[in-house]
Amino acid sequence: METHRRVICYIFLLLFCLKASGQEPDSVLNKLTQFIRATDQFSQYIPHEKVYLHFDNTSYYQGDNIWFTCYVVTSELHQATELSKTLYVELLNPGGEIVDKRVLKIENGRCHGDFTLGQLPFYSGFYEVRAYTKYMLNFGEDIIFSRLLPVFNKPKEEGNFEEKNMLKYGYGKYPKKREKPQKDKKVTLKLYPEGGNLIHGITSRIAFEITDAFGNPLEASGKIINEDKEDISTFSTFHDGRGFFDYTPDESKRKAIVDYNGKQYQFDMPKPLPQGFTFHVDNLSYPDSIEISLQKNKYTPAEKLGLVFISRGQLHGYSLINVIHNETIRFKVDKTNFPPGVAQAILFNSDGEILCDRLLFNNKDNQLNIQSKTSKETYEPYEAVDMEFTLTDREANPVQTPFSLSVRDGMNEVEWNHTILTDLLLMSEIKGYVRNPSYYFEADDSTHRSALDLLMMVQGWHRYSWKQMAGIEPFDLKYRPEQGIEMHGQVVSFVRKIPKPNVTVSSFLLKRGEEEKPGNAFDVFVTDSLGRFAFRTDITGKWNMILAVSEKGKKKDHRIILDRLFTPEPKRYRYAEMQVSIADRAEEDKEEKAEPEEVPDIQEPEEDINALLTSYEDSLAKAGNKEKILRLDEVTVTAKKRSREKDIYNNRSKSIAYYDVQSEWDDITDQGKYIGKDIHELMINMNNNFRKAFSRQDEYLQYKGRMPLFVINYEPTVATEMDYNKYKLIRLEAIKSIYINEDISTMCKYADPRISPLEIDKIYGCVVFVETYPEDKIPTDAGKGVRKTWLEGYSQVKEFYSPDYSELPPEPDYRRTLYWNPSVTPDEKGKASIRFYNNSKCRKFKVSAETITADGIIGVYK
């Protein structure tokens, strides 16, 4: 009500000024107030959600588990969401492929899960974990939670975590679905006029950012010169390569000169607009208010404007301004009712055009206090460790809200500067890389406030679209909040894909591996006027699903397309994100922060021609062609017998791509494509390196211009027409998985032994390993109007394992995460105690505890 009264007061004030000046209220005022009303209504009826993930560690190695707790809150008050009940968490490899996925049930705004870095083929590098509700996708893919995690190759010496080797980004033959990171010039200067534009003849404040080619901040200075090379003004960085200066533009051409490391770099100054408004927001001088300065130049006609303040998707301030003269207009806006976090000031005209906008940060110290203590400072290997935590509010009252907790071996740990505080208040509201978000919350002094204000000036993106809120641009609510495991689909005609209304769809769910047990589900529904249907369930695990279409009791050969291809595209990495800093390299220099450095890369080994020839000769010997082998009597070669399981593991690990065929086939169908039972169409749709080729009217496949070598269940092949075409006879339902391998030694191993390695390299572009189901496990074909697929329910949640050395004998223990608990609940005094056992060598613990109360109060211990 206070907000609405403030709006009415502003409107009456403007009406009074117009009448006093002899003017009548016109449609301009009505349009401005209409935008304000629409924005207010949108914010009330279209809420936003946010997601934050707390991880058990700051980096990982091949074979590790990634443990995480998810906090899902509303944007307005950071309270536990009551909108969505389902959260999607995806693990993407460096190339942008989804290698694992969790579907989690949100209860009281929380859920938790894990990933295992054990899938083959494995590629070290920066993996991305992203999390979102389906409802969040209505507001664009930029708002979903995304975090880059460094994943290193398994150390050559077990437990040696000083080894931090990974494949350099862009190396390796694995598929790359991400756009390549962009590299800037050696020194880059970016200029951000406050409000958005420079206006001819009016002094503006310009924020700037100086970075290197990889986006890292540079500390430098510079100056502005005119056409006569006379100095107009100077500037220097204040924090993380950022700073600001005042500047009055005119029609002349001017340049900015940056001095860095004894060299000068030249940049053109942006051209000013001939007409417009300058906008200055002072958020630092007054503790309870914001001062707004607004000015137009003499070429700009008088105009009535609106000003709104949006924070967390809600309106928190309004003004209607009649700009008649060219003098600066100054006024203050009360910010005591603004919530903590990022706010956006938007100046707009009666056509709904944004003339100026600016981000600002409002910080209120209203956090939980989390304290931790142990009975001693250092612990011996395998010794029991007891920790006690205490949670209190600002008035030292105990708090019982559950918190997620990680205790790690702190040696050789990658530095981590993200917490639930930095993400919910800052990083979830802006776009772009911020080198150390925790810095801005270290203190509330003038230095940190000024640095944070500079950050707001250079971050142009904001989470909320005012034009959509005001009704200027359309908003399409494509996805409603999910209340369980939901499935939406459409029935269309087989050939022309015309929607089929009022047909009956029967669904039958069978738990995988438990088809003979009771508990399977059956349901029937009728399609709407667009041929659509939907159902909701609450299941756990992956279920086989059979959908059948009938009309008036007769089966119909229609196609069933399911709406489950909503996953976002992989984001483009930034070079600045793909770096690591080691928090403490050793006890003796623990106060010295390690400088960021690029992770060393492992170059791919060159092919060993001797190994190829050995493989070739072994194959010839097995084929009985011993006369082609020259033996040296004085040399005896011995080797361990290789098992089939080991060979399969090696072939998978050297592959560049892996496909779950049934899932891929389902995705192709859900895209509206029809491939029938054609394995060539399957391969082409799965991997765009495959192309069709024809010879004597026979259809073949090519891979990067050469033939693929199809190997079925790891059985060697011979160069005959019959053997080569054997893969075409396999039913797609019988294929479990496919691996693509470009390793030349692997091709030599499975190709006809009579072909030389050099010829193999010319003929074949890859090996296609086809793995089939056992004969008694092959799914049956779907009948007329029937679609056999799967339904993924909520993921099974594993429990973190910690050894108990009071009962178990000590053994080499190199756990990096010593204790992980997604939900530790304090007692009525706000206290919680935990116990775990140390590993073989840890001398320094790193503790991370995070939470948020039902009222949206954040707590962090780091």
Structure notes:
- Among the domains are: 49-152, Macroglobulin (MG2) domain (Immunoglobulin-like); 198-268, Macroglobulin (MG2) domain (Immunoglobulin-like, Sandwich), CATH 2.60.40; 485-565, no CATH class; 609-777, Ferric Hydroxamate Uptake Protein, Chain A, domain 1, CATH 2.170.130.
- The protein is globular and about 85 Å long.
- Residues 1-24 and 586-641 have low confidence and may be disordered.
- A hairpin with a 2-residue loop joins β18 and β19 (314-323).
- It contains twelve helices and 43 strands.
- α6 runs parallel beside α11 (744-750).
- With 862 residues, it is of the alpha+beta class.
- The strands form twelve sheets. It has a five-stranded mixed beta sheet with strand order 2-8-7-4-5, with no helix packed on it.
- Residues 1-22 form the signal peptide.
Poorly predicted spans: 1-24, 586-641
CATH names the topology of the domain at 609-777 as: Ferric Hydroxamate Uptake Protein, Chain A, domain 1
Percentage of residues in strands: 25-35%
What characterizes the major β-sheet?
A: 5 strands, mixed
Tell me the total number of β-strands: 43
> What's the rounded overall pLDDT mean?
87
Q: Structural class, judged by helices and strands?
A: alpha+beta
Largest sheet, spatial ordering of strands? 2-8-7-4-5
Helix content: 10-25%
Overall body shape: globular
- Count of runs of 4 or more consecutive helical residues: 12
Query: For the record, what CATH class of the domain at 609-777 applies?
Result: Mainly Beta
Taking all Cα atoms into account, the compactness measure Rg is: 32 Å
CATH architecture identity of the domain at 609-777: Beta Complex
